[in-house]
Design brief:
elongated; mainly alpha; disordered N terminus
Length: 275
């Protein structure tokens, strides 16, 4: 009798682990599928606006103003700004998806369902992060297709293009989650994108090379993390960059790690979700 009890006890962990793994997989997939469904369901808000904005940028800055500016960095102006415009759309949409979705879950009180579920915090964060990446990649693909209408784009390094855009998307998806955790109303989820993210993006070398700036302005620009993301992505397409690409990857990977750990810690502590 004692042997039978001991055998059942020894088998319990081996039976529990596959069940827990399956639960985690199902939970993670559910978050990602829900995020994807949300993106597609409101495509008029998630995909169409950035496509229209990118088209206007290419018409005004690329076709009209760009012909007067001439070459930049050895390329036509429209070719030079194209990677920056693609990256700008990826950054803003990765950020916007997570901040709006997670805050919506808080506002609607269904975040509590996730918090009481057996899903670990790191997996919840990963699910929302992947949702942000998905939206960023979809919008980035749409903007890239629009780019090809206006100019020819070559690829210097496909590995750099993919890794740079993924890392940038991860960083800003996680940053959006932190914004959503601390936000207490809808005004606070729009404050950071309007007054922080937009200025950093426009001053991050999207429309110009920082070599055109005076030395003091170049030094200030190097404190802008988006400068490194844009230039790493531009290097993947054109093979030119205003910054060291290795340093850009160090910053992106470091920022992603710090933000991910911070998100998991905030969720574990219940900051903004159990108050």
């Amino acid at each position: 009798m004692d042997n039978a009890v001991q055998n059942q006890t020894s088998l319990a962990p081996s039976v529990k682990e596959p069940v827990l793994l399956k639960t985690n997989i199902v939970g993670f997939n559910t978050i990602v599928i829900r995020e994807f469904s949300r993106i597609i369901r409101i495509w008029g808000q998630t995909i169409v606006p950035p496509a229209i904005t990118a088209t206007l940028y290419f018409i005004i800055f690329g076709s009209l103003i760009g012909t007067r500016i001439g070459d930049m960095g050895g390329y036509t102006y429209i070719q030079y700004i194209a990677p920056g415009l693609i990256m700008m759309s990826v950054i803003t949409n990765s950020y916007g998806n997570v901040v709006s979705s997670f805050f919506g879950a808080k506002f609607g009180k269904h975040i509590e369902e996730l918090l009481v579920s057996p899903l670990p915090g790191w997996l919840i964060v990963a699910g929302y992060m992947v949702g942000g990446i998905v939206r960023g990649m979809i919008v980035g693909g749409v903007v890239t297709a629009i780019t090809l209408i206006f100019t020819h784009m070559k690829i210097h390094s496909i590995g750099v293009v993919i890794s740079a855009v993924l890392l940038s998307s991860i960083v800003f998806a996680l940053a959006g989650m932190i914004n959503a955790v601390f936000a207490k109303n809808f005004d606070q989820i729009s404050f950071i994108p309007t007054f922080v993210l937009t200025p950093l993006t426009y001053l991050g070398g999207v429309f110009y090379t920082i070599k055109l700036l005076p030395d003091w302005a170049q030094n200030i620009s190097h404190a802008n993390p988006i400068l490194y993301m844009v230039n790493a992505f531009r290097y993947g397409f054109l093979g030119v960059s205003d910054v060291n690409v290795g340093l850009a990857y160090t910053i992106m990977i470091g920022a992603a790690a710090v933000l991910y750990i911070s998100c998991v810690w905030l969720l574990h502590r219940g900051v903004g979700t159990r108050e």
